[in-house]
Each structure stands twice: as structure tokens, then as C-alpha cells.
Specification:
- The chain is mainly alpha-helical.
- It folds into two domains: about 10-45, no CATH class; about 55-95.
- The chain contains one helix and two strands.
- It has one helix at about 60-95, and strands spanning about 20-25, 30.
- A two-stranded antiparallel sheet has the order 1-2.
- A hairpin with a 5-residue loop joins strand 1 and strand 2.
- The radius of gyration is 29 Å and the shape is elongated.
- The N and C termini lie far apart (about 90 Å).
């Protein structure tokens, strides 16, 4: 509400995958095989004010990005060198008229 009091907007279903035939999708989420739904778990609790840790290591991501950029630069340089050598070889093969 506009005065800051909490307002219920929907219900959160707490489910358990134990004992269910689940499969992990390409998005790393669990799905019930055959498209079913998971049973509700009445013993589950939501922990409020908890922070989820990131699954990304920022330092390693930066190192990987720099390595990929350097590999790209080396590959681009090799391609330019190959083009220059090809053009040089082609000019040597031309017969003077």
C-alpha cells in the first residue's frame, strides 16, 4: 500500500525435488521429467533477509577476458601476416610482360 504497510500479492510454493524424477536442463534448472510439477513441501522455510552469493569469480572472469582478447589479437595478426605473405607470393609469381 502507499503508506508502507506490507501487502500480500501472491503465494510462493515451496517444493522439494527429493523422490521426484527430475532432469537438469541446459539452463541448469531442475525440471520434472515428462513436464509434471513438484510436490509442495510443508516443512520448507523461507529465510528472509538472506543474501545469495554470486557464482561469478570477478578476478577470474577479468583474467579470462584479457586472455581471450590477447588470443583474438594474435589470431588477427596472424591472419594479416598470412594475407601479406600471400600477396607477396602472388606478386613474385607474376611474369613481367
Amino acid at each position: 500500500a502507499g503508506d508502507g504497510t506490507p501487502q500480500v500479492v501472491d503465494k510462493l510454493k515451496l517444493a522439494s525435488a527429493r523422490g521426484s524424477d527430475t532432469v537438469k536442463g541446459l539452463d541448469n534448472l531442475l525440471y520434472v521429467r515428462g513436464g509434471g510439477t513438484l510436490p509442495a513441501n510443508m516443512d520448507a522455510k523461507v529465510q528472509g533477509s538472506a543474501l545469495e552469493g554470486s557464482n561469478v569469480n570477478m578476478a577470474q572472469s577479468l583474467v579470462d577476458m584479457i586472455e581471450n582478447q590477447r588470443a583474438y589479437d594474435v589470431t588477427a595478426s596472424m591472419m594479416k601476416s598470412a594475407k601479406d605473405m600471400d600477396e607477396g607470393g602472388a606478386s613474385l609469381m607474376r611474369l613481367p610482360t
